[in-house]
Amino acid sequence: MIKSDLPKEAYDQFYGTYLSVLDESELKVLLANGKTEFAKFIKNIPDKKLQSSYEMGKWTIAEVILHIIDAERVFQYRALRFLRNDKTPLPGFDQDLFVKQSNANTRDKDSLIAEFKAVREASITLFNNLENEELSRTGIASNIEWTVGTLGFVICGHLKHHQQIITYKYLQT
Fold first, then answer.
1. What DSSP character marks residue 59?
2. Alpha-carbon distance 173 to 91, whole Å?
3. CB neighbours of 94 closer than 8 A, spacing ≥ 6?
4. Distance CA 118, CA 99 (A)
5. How far apart are CA 148 and CA 27, in angstroms?
6. CA 141, chain centre distance (Å)
7. The CA-based dihedral angle spanning residues 78, 117, 153, 89, taken in that order and rounded to the nearest 10 degrees
8. Residue range 1-50, pLDDT digits in tens
């Protein structure tokens, strides 16, 4: 599946921001490449910058990275529920509460990289063997109808979106 295979409604939501940063690569390719590229990206962040933010009150780089990991877990869970045809509407999650409770600023790069790789490997395993029919299954989360495939692409786009923010707002200052 490629991004243009997604239903148009996927772009009509807030999450279109994440989809717009992706190219037309296969979902499986985006997931695999993202694992390697983002781990390398984290490794290259200067240690002194990890617990810094670009503005008072904004998340630190470590918090952004852990937010990416947490959000990927949430999107995986939603995809699994919809994949199994569970039609129970799922609530949203409070990203600010998650970050506040994450203790991200006590973490070093190696632990963040290891956790990211483990979570991304779980995403790769979840999505790798799905056929188009399975990727087209739907469910409701945060009052939005999603397809399993859209969730996979949002996982990839969410990472890329935040990587761009880290690059331009945190590392170029």
1. P
2. 37
3. none
4. 19
5. 11
6. 15
7. 10
8. 776 777 666 656 678 889 889 999 999 999 999 999 999 999 999 999 99
